[in-house]
Amino acid sequence: MRMLLLSSCLFVGGLAHAANDLPGGGIDPQALSRHVRIPASDDFEGRAPATPGEERTVQYLIEEFKKYGLQPGGVDGSWVQPVPMVRAQVDGPVRAQLRQKGSTRTLANGEDVTLQSLRPQQAVAIKDAPLVFVGYGIDAPERQWNDYKDVDLHGKIAVVLINDADFEADQPGAFDGKAVTYYGRWTYKFEEAARRGAQGVLIVHETAPAAYGWATVKSSGTSPLFDIERTPEQALAQHVPVRGWMQRSLAEQLFRDAGLDFDAEKRKAMTPAFKPVALGDARLSVDFKLKREQVITRNVVAKLSGGAHADEAVIFSAHWDAFGIGQPDAKGDRIRRGAIDNATGVATVLELGRVFAAGPQPQRTLYFVALTAEEKGLLGASYYAAHPLAPLDKTAAVLNIEMFSPDGPTRDIASWGKGRVSLEGDLERVAKARGRSYSPDPNLEAGFFYRADHFAFARLGVPAITIGPGLDMTDGGVEKGRELRDAYFAACYHQACDAWTPTGTPAAMPPIPCWCTTWAPSWPTAAAGRIGNRGRSSARYASRAKPRAAEAPHRRRGPRRGPRRGSGFGGGRGRPIRSRAHPKPTIPSAMAASMHCCTVKATGESSYQSQRGGPRTLDRVTPRYTATAILSNIPALSAAAATKA
What is the C-alpha to C-alpha distance for residues 295 and 291, in angstroms, rounded to an integer? Predict the structure, then answer.
């Protein structure tokens, strides 16, 4: 396959470098392929935290970062940030029985239900606990919504719907229409039920509102759980004795035997008038042993020290973990290799680190972070956010990279979530400058905003974004793109077939921005309005620069570092400087890559899209140096992840 390698420009001190002068020879498709192939190989055993697969992964990442000339960015001058956790896993068989209307049904763990526990206990032993349907299990006072009303859940099992009440409603209501809120996430369901003293929680699985099939639930639901270290009192308050999921078919039978219609009760739960419903005389008994142990897993951190503003940071992140070794699939394969999810992201971070290290010194310090335990609830990112290696109030942006598609080139690029950070506007502006379109999260109902590591930073007010592929394929359009993505999530998401292979459809991945944030004077902003997010305005940092004179928009203090024309970091005057096209190179058939770079001069105007309102201009600050945005078409890795029609 041949791909057009578009020219790239990198302005440093006002000097432009053509594409063939990009530091380190530009993005290397062979290196990217290697960085997926090796961590996704059987030798790495699926890269589960606190396993031999982690040790191999961490050592591989450190060796590559060292090779590229980056510096250790971890604790005490090391390459790692230790993340202490507790691992809890079922030890032996799970016995579960549902008694109703005088008969008893044995439930198969992994088939009818998945049952786990993070409670600090040696075993789970529940006898004849009543079941209560609590709708979507949401208590949101700011939305005038409370599914629980005054029900007493002590000693009872809460049966809960996944997603939130607007997802299947005829009209948008108290929530964000089909754009799932944090209240729709399974993590919230467990947390809220624990706060209300429930004996357990069973979430009813449905593929559309969950955004994945039962195979994904089974994969995670039969794997070890991880939690941050807590005191016994905190752990007891945070976790119910038993938690898990049930198949919809089981829920339908359960409701029917209680004299209820599942769909009718579900419709009632879409209204604020809903009240909890006891499921007849249904009783659940559960018995299994637990193995709990303290473990240490690791974030791997490399850095490239900045220049004039070295105290400010930009983080490039991707999670290195996958699901390790689990139950065999239909072919007997037990290794969940995580090639697309998320060896592709780690490969990108490694390659960006190499290119940046080979180039001129950035103004801000760059951190290249491979995060642990994303698949266990964003735990590595949450630990970093609670124990930052660079102060969060001086972290300009977190650019997280997830799950590049192997399905073919697209006309668009996308981010996860909508209207939450000004980085989205910057992504759209720079994409358009390169002849691409920007698609705000095309699948808001899947709640990806809350399912990626950037959320751990965003909820603390740090401008953070996850970038992923768009759906508008050059061959087949949005319809084909959606078909192939749905096939991946149905067949291979968190499964053994998410694996690297040297054959398949070569593709060019969406642009991955190295962003103006490494150079730009104004900071991205984060909107308030989400659970736990206090927001952040660039006004907090305006004291670092004198106000910009309206009558002299291009006035600078000190030497000029670049051309005056250009667009603003968050939107502004001027136009992007165009680069020149170069002849097509021959690219290995398994991969394709192109590197895009546009140079812009920041005006310092930043804006955000509030969750409930329109765009707002926050402030202006004086430009301090030339902004540079690098867009990389990261190559596709031909992973056997989507079953093509």
Answer: 12
Q: Where are the alpha helices (DSSP H) in 222-270?
A: 232-238, 248-257, 262-269
β-pairing verdict for 309-319 and 615-619:
unpaired
pLDDT digits (tens, 9 = 90+) for 303-345: 999 999 999 999 999 999 998 888 888 888 889 899 988 899 9
- Rounded Cα–Cα distance for residues 145 and 136 (Å): 10
Element (H, E) at 86: strand 80-90
Q: Provide the phi-psi class of 527: left if phi over 0, else alpha when psi is between -120 and 50, else beta.
A: beta
| In the block, residue with structure tokens 């997603």 | 163
Greater confidence (377 vs 584) lies with 377
Percentage of residues in the chain with pLDDT exceeding 90? 49
Q: What is the DSSP letter of 55?
A: H
Give the DSSP H/E element, type plus range, for residue 65: helix 52-67
pLDDT tens string 354-397 = 999 999 999 999 999 999 999 888 999 999 999 999 999 999 99
Mean pLDDT to the nearest integer, 618-623: 20
Q: CA-CA distance, 219 to 204, in Å (whole number)?
A: 16
Q: pLDDT digit string (tens) for 8-30?
A: 222 222 223 333 456 888 888 88
Q: In this model, does residue 201 exceed pLDDT 90?
A: yes
Taking the C-alpha atoms of residue 239 and residue 235, their distance in angstroms, rounded to an integer, is: 6
Nearest CA to 290 out of 96, 126, 94 is that of 94
- The alpha-helical segments, DSSP class H, found in 308-362 are 344-358
Other C-beta atoms lying within 10 Å of the C-beta of residue 584: 11
φ, ψ of residue 260 in degrees (nearest 5): -125, 155
Task: Give the whole-angstrom CA distance, residue 149 versus residue 136.
Answer: 12
Give how far Cα 33 sits from Cα of 349, 501, 593, 636, Å. 13, 10, 11, 8
Task: Indicate the SS3 state at residue 123.
Answer: strand
- Alpha-carbon span 334 to 328, nearest angstrom: 4
Q: Which 3 state secondary structure label does DSSP give 240?
A: coil
As a whole number of angstroms, the distance between CA 208 and CA 193 comes to 23
Predicted pLDDT of residue 443? 73
Pick the closest to residue 597 from 2, 11, 4, 3 (CA basis). 11
pTM: 0.70
Structure token digits, residue 442: 């095309």
